[in-house]
Structure formats: structure tokens, C-alpha cells
UniProtKB/TrEMBL annotation, chain A:
It comes from Paenibacillus lactis. The chain crosses the membrane at residues 47-68, 75-95, 101-120, 186-205, 235-255, 276-298, 318-336. This is Simple sugar transport system permease protein. It is found in: Cell membrane. It is a multi-pass membrane protein. Keywords: Cell membrane, Membrane, Sugar transport, Transmembrane, Transmembrane helix, Transport. The keyword Transport applies. The keyword Transferase does not apply.
Automatic annotation (TrEMBL), chain B:
The lineage of its organism: Bacteria, Bacillati, Bacillota, Bacilli, Bacillales. It comes from Paenibacillus lactis. It is a multi-pass membrane protein. The chain crosses the membrane at residues 9-28, 34-54, 66-91, 97-119, 155-172, 202-221, 227-245, 252-272, 278-298. This is Simple sugar transport system permease protein. InterPro entries: ABC_transp_permease.
Length: 364, 317
């Protein structure tokens, strides 16, 4: 079975489980899904909002997927996103430049901020073999508390203690032609950052020597080393780039979808990125598609909540259940294989063997 | 200085206990060979079930003392059941244990709020009263130690400390403990010796679930009093404590107390003149940075179970 079928099955089961959940809690699943999808896609404005909601997810998903290709589990996308967004916000609030230059500088600052935040776990992994899951979690909380104190200290908002000053309009990713095209949606240039990042990463992973080396390290660290690939350098570089992409998610979120940075919360998109990457089978295009799908769920849930009594957290529940099914897709695969064997046991056992070979190729 | 220490010590202990019991549970899981990154989610489930059961029963029976104990038991049982999802994925299906654990965290975080909103509307569940702090009779009169350890303590603190001793005994002094550890070190040798590796791993994960559920419920019934849909990332901190404590019961005690004490100091620093001169951000990030440094120092001599995180494949040699 190939990856997209697995992902689709996981989505199907997740949606079924969501329907069951709605039914058990006394709601009408058909209505729920109707309003959920309408809320995400009914009008050009809602479609625009869905694309905007999906943008940070594309980028965090890409970040997790990229690191995963090198065999690294970047659970720290949330912290990298927060710190990248913080750096971009700091630049936007304190530098006075022509708009194009300022935005470029902010994007750069976001990338570097996120990248530096992931560089530390990368170095610790490469040099001291410290597991990146734990170190990136520590980095998450370090980012959380750093931002928690630095924002009120230096960039305090006019009215609220818990968020930064509003970014001036020229330091935000909004573009009036884009909003007009989607009839007043808050979609912004961040979406293009996401698309470009997907294309660049796809090129990097599939068409360059660097991408080949990173993937080789991910498949088997030892054989990569034996083949003369600088494993440690690859690990550090992979984390650096992954962190940078997560930092871009921070730019898209805090200077695009929102206009200020809130303190006291780790962005949930960081963790959702893991789900996006997993469902997208760690392939750039897959990440894009699954982020858009999650975008529909997240952006439609408010409308659904307004039209029915169903709590908006149903969207999060569905996503979480999808991820569990994606993680356990081997069960479906086993059942599928058993069924296949039973179906073709007597007459063509040779075809069966062929099937096994093809599957092997698919998996690779 | 001494009086401040006396004042913050009970708080530090209260904050340590949920971390300790959760990390202790994770010790069983990892010693049996299964990484459990879903601790945070399991704690949330415990906190949710605890709040649900206790709030319903308090409405029925008022403030009877046994209601809280029923809540603790229910929380442990619910989280143990919930952890079966992780056990099934990582033991039977050889799924990536970190991804499965992440799914556990996500499901717990989303599902509990979804259910809580269906119950209360706001998504928060309050309990009318939790455990009350008390002074240990006689022992609290001992100078120094009495003030630090035996005043303003909770009964759950002592329960968890007893569980710590029992766990250490079970892991190191009983055949069961030896077998469990063997499954995490060298599962094939364990299997050759007639141990059912998969069953042992199930037990390890379920103990982890039950203890994490207790941890979540203890937070609810000592210092928070309310289910809010998260446990402030304490599950991840418990996982870090497990590693910081080098997969040993008393190492974990030390590591969790370090986190508890450091967090409490950071929380109260503004009202203590000696500490108020230090920028609070330094105090807040201190425990995390120290953990990173500790991980580097321990990296050469890690005591991690050898087979932790590896799916057990009986046919592989």
C-alpha cells in the first residue's frame, strides 16, 4: 500500500471516529460536518481564511518533516516558531525601513531566530548524542519564558500586559490586493512564504547532493558515515534548516495572521506540525496537502460551533485521532495483506510474491 | 534566608510530587523498553477523570473524605486504560513510539476539553475542595526537619513517597523487577529465558499510565482545584526528570525535587528581597538550561535501558 492510501484511510477513520464522538455526545454528525466544511470553504473569504490558517501549519509541518528525513524528531517546532516570530516582531517594531526591505529583514530574522533555537539541540545531538526530543522540549520552555519576560519588558502593548505592541501596517504581511481577491479575508503574503518553502524544500530534498546526504543519514547513520558523509555536520545542518522553517511559521503567524505577539502560550501549531508531517508522509507536497486539510478543520470549527452546539475542540480531537490511526497504519496494512493472501492463495501464489515485491518498492 | 526557605519548602514539595509520581511511572515503562512521551496526555486524562468523578460525587455526597480517594483511584484506572492505546501501538504494531506518544498527548488534550465542554460549557471543571495540608503530629516538632518536611504536608505526598519506596523495592529486589528490567535491556535474552516480553511491556506501560493519572489527579486535588485542559507541560518535565535522574528511582527523586524547588523559587522570587535582584527570566529558564547541561554531562555514561524505544521483534537477532 502506498503512503497516500494509508493517509487517506487514516483520515477516513479519523472522520468516522469524530462522527461517533459527536453522536455519543448527543449531536448530529451530518450537520456537524456540513457546517465544519461550509465554515472552511463556503465563500471566497472563508477559503482565504482557511489558507491563512493553514500557512503556519504548512511551515511547522515542513520543519518537522525535514528533520525527520534526517532521522531527527523535531518536537521543538513550537519553541522555534515562537522565537522566530519574536525576532521578526522585534525587528518590525524597532527598525524603520522601506516596506519591501523591512519585510525581507523580518523574514530573515524569523528564519535565523528559529534556526538558532534548533541549532543548540542539533549540536547537542551531533556532539554529545543528547536525544533531540528532550533537548528541544527544554528549548521550547526556554523560548516560552524568554518571550514571556522580554515582550513586556521591551515591547509592551498599549493596553494589554500580555501581548506586544501592534506591528505598524508596513511591517505586516497583509496585501490589499490579496484580501480583495478573497473578499476581505485575512489571507496574507505569508501563504506565499509557505508555498515557496515547500518548493525549496522539495528541491533540496529530492534534487541536491545535500538532500541526498541528509536522507542517507536518516536512513542509516552508520552506513552514511561509512560512505563518507559528514554525519555530524548533516545533523546540525538539518536541525538548523528545520528550525529556520519553523521560525518562518512564526513570521507568518505573528506578522501575518495576527498583528502582535501574545505571551504565556506556546503556539499550538508547533505540535500540530508533527501531525501534519506524519499525515503528509514527510514529503513536502504531502505536508502541503495535509496542512490545507487541517486548515479547513481549524478554520471551519468556529462556524460549526456557532451553528450547532458542538464544541470547537472536535476539530482537534479529529486531528489527534487521525494521527493515532496514521501511526498505527501498519495494522490496516497487515489486515490488507492477509486479505490479499487469502484471496489469491490457491490459483496464483506467484502473483502474491510479486505483490510483496511491489509493496517493498512502494515503501522505499 | 532561613525563614524564606522554611516558607517555600512545603510549596516546593507540593510541586515536586506530581512530577515524581509521573516520572516514576515512566521509569517502569522505559525499563520495560517502551518510551512514553505521552506522559503529559496521561496526566491530563487523570486530571480530567479526577475532576469529573470528584465534582459529581461532591455534588452528591458533599465533602466526605473518601470522595477524593475514589477520584484518585478513578484517575489512575482511567489513565492506565488510556495508556493501552500507546501500549497496543508500540508493542503489537511496532509503531514509532515517539509518534504514538505524541498522538496520545494530542488525543488527551483535545478529547478531554471536548468532553469537558459538553459537561460544563466552559471546558473547566472545578472541584469544591481538595486535600487539606496538615502538620504531621509529633514529627513536625522536630527542629529544622520538622519545619521543612512535616509541616503543611499533604497526605498524597506521603502516598507518593511510599509508592517510590515500593517501586524501588519491586524493581530491584523482586523477580518481577528483574524481568521487567531485562525486557528493556536485552529483550531477546529475556525471551530466551522464558519471559513474555510483550506482556511485561504492557505491564510497564500500564503502570506508567496509572502513575501519570495519579500525578494529574494530585495536581488537581492539591494546588490547582480545577481541570483546565492541560497540566502546564509537566508531563514533558517528568520525562526530562527521568533522564536527568538516569533511570533510577532515587535519581528521579532528586531530579524532580530539583525541578520543584527551582520552579517554586522562580515563582516566589518577586516577594523575596534576596531573590528579587535576579531578573525573573533567569530563574525561570534556569531548570531547563541546567537540564540541558546535565544531559551533556551524563551523555558519556548514560544509563538508559539498552533496548528502550526499539520495537521487539522476536525473530530478529
Amino acid at each position: 500500500m502506498n503512503n497516500s492510501i494509508k493517509s487517506l484511510l487514516a483520515v477516513l477513520f479519523g472522520l468516522l471516529a469524530g462522527a461517533l464522538l459527536m453522536a455519543v455526545t448527543g449531536h448530529n454528525p451530518v450537520e456537524g460536518y456540513k457546517f465544519l466544511i461550509q465554515g472552511g470553504l463556503k465563500s471566497p473569504e472563508r477559503i482565504g481564511n482557511t489558507l491563512a490558517t493553514a500557512t503556519p501549519l504548512i511551515l511547522t509541518g515542513l520543519s518537522v518533516a525535514f528533520a525527520f528525513r534526517t532521522g531527527l524528531f523535531n518536537i521543538g517546532a513550537a519553541g522555534q516558531m515562537l522565537f522566530g516570530g519574536f525576532c521578526a516582531t522585534a525587528v518590525g517594531l524597532s527598525v524603520d525601513l522601506p516596506r519591501a526591505l523591512l519585510l525581507t529583514l523580518m523574514v530573515l530574522a524569523g528564519f535565523i531566530g528559529g534556526a538558532l533555537w534548533a541549532l543548540i539541540p542539533g549540536i547537542l545531538k551531533a556532539r554529545y548524542n543528547v536525544h533531540e526530543v528532550v533537548s528541544t522540549i527544554m528549548m521550547n520552555w526556554t523560548a516560552y519564558w524568554t518571550v514571556y519576560y522580554v515582550i513586556p519588558g521591551y515591547f509592551k502593548g498599549e493596553s494589554l500586559e500580555t501581548e506586544s505592541r501592534q506591528l505598524p501596517p508596513e511591517a505586516m504581511l497583509h496585501a490589499s490586493w490579496l484580501s480583495d481577491m478573497f473578499q476581505g479575508s485575512y489571507i496574507n503574503l505569508g501563504f506565499f512564504i509557505g508555498v515557496v518553502a515547500v518548493l525549496v524544500v522539495a528541491f533540496l530534498i529530492n534534487k541536491t547532493t545535500l538532500g541526498y546526504e541528509l536522507k542517507a543519514v536518516g536512513f542509516n547513520r552508520h552506513s552514511a558515515e561509512y560512505a563518507g558523509i559528514a554525519v555530524k555536520r548533516s545533523i546540525v545542518l538539518s536541525m538548523f534548516i528545520a528550525g529556520g522553517i519553523a521560525g518562518l511559521a512564526g513570521v507568518a503567524q505573528y506578522a501575518g495572521n495576527a498583528s502582535s505577539l501574545q505571551i504565556g502560550v506556546l503556539p499550538s501549531q508547533g505540535f500540530d506540525g508533527i501531525a501534519v508531517a506524519l499525515l503528509g508522509a514527510n514529503a513536502p507536497l504531502g505536508v502541503m496537502v495535509s496542512a490545507l486539510f487541517f486548515g479547513v478543520l481549524y478554520s471551519g470549527r468556529g462556524f460549526m460551533n456557532a451553528m450547532t452546539e458542538i464544541p470547537p475542540e472536535i476539530a482537534d480531537s479529529i486531528i489527534a485521532i487521525i494521527i493515532y490511526f496514521a501511526a498505527t497504519s501498519i495494522l490496516i496494512e497487515r489486515l490488507f495483506r492477509k486479505w490479499k493472501v487469502r484471496k489469491s492463495r490457491a490459483p496464483h501464489s506467484a502473483a502474491n510474491k510479486k505483490q510483496g515485491e511491489r509493496e517493498h518498492v512502494d515503501n522505499a | 534566608m532561613w525563614t524564606t526557605l522554611e516558607q517555600i519548602f512545603p510549596y516546593a514539595i507540593v510541586f515536586t510530587i506530581p512530577l515524581l509520581i509521573t516520572a516514576l511511572g515512566a521509569l517502569f515503562s522505559e525499563r520495560s523498553g517502551v518510551v512514553n512521551i505521552g506522559l503529559d496526555g496521561l496526566m491530563i486524562v487523570g486530571s480530567f477523570i479526577g475532576a469529573f468523578v470528584v465534582s459529581k460525587m461532591q455534588a452528591q455526597f458533599g465533602g466526605s473524605w473518601w470522595v477524593l480517594w475514589v477520584g484518585l483511584l478513578a484517575a489512575a484506572a482511567a489513565s492506565a486504560l488510556f495508556s493501552l492505546l500507546h501500549a497496543f501501538a508500540s508493542i503489537n504494531l511496532s509503531a514509532n513510539q515517539i509518534i504514538s506518544g505524541t498522538a496520545i498527548n494530542m488525543i488527551a488534550g483535545a478529547l478531554t476539553i471536548f468532553l469537558a465542554r459538553n459537561i460544563t460549557g466552559s471546558g473547566n471543571i472545578r472541584i469544591t475542595s481538595g486535600f487539606r495540608p496538615f502538620d504531621f503530629p509529633i514529627l513536625s516538632d522536630i527542629p529544622i526537619i520538622g519545619d521543612l518536611f512535616f509541616t503543611n504536608t499533604y497526605i498524597t505526598t506521603w502516598l507518593v513517597l511510599i509508592l517510590l519506596l515500593v517501586s524501588a523495592f519491586i524493581l530491584y529486589k523482586t523477580p518481577f523487577g528483574l524481568r521487567l528490567r531485562a525486557c528493556g535491556e536485552h529483550p531477546h535474552a529475556a525471551e530466551a529465558a522464558g519471559i513474555r516480553v510483550r506482556a511485561m511491556r504492557y505491564v510497564g506501560v500500564m503502570i506508567s499510565g496509572a502513575f501519570a493519572g495519579l500525578g494529574g489527579a494530585v495536581i488537581l486535588m492539591t494546588y490547582s482545584g480545577e481541570f483546565t485542559g492541560n497540566v502546564a507541560g509537566l508531563g514533558f518535565l517528568a520525562l526530562a526528570s527521568l533522564i536527568f535522574g538516569q533511570w533510577k528511582p532515587f535519581g528521579i527523586l532528586a531530579a524532580t525535587f530539583f525541578f520543584g524547588f527551582a520552579s517554586t523559587v522562580a515563582n516566589v522570587s518577586q516577594v523575596i528581597p534576596q531573590l528579587a535582584v535576579i531578573p525573573p527570566v533567569i530563574l525561570k529558564i534556569f531548570p531547563y538550561v541546567v537540564t540541558l547541561i546535565a544531559l551533556v554531562i551524563f551523555s558519556k555514561s548514560s544509563n538508559a535501558p539498552k533496548a528502550v524505544g526499539e520495537p521487539f521483534d522476536s525473530g530478529k537477532r
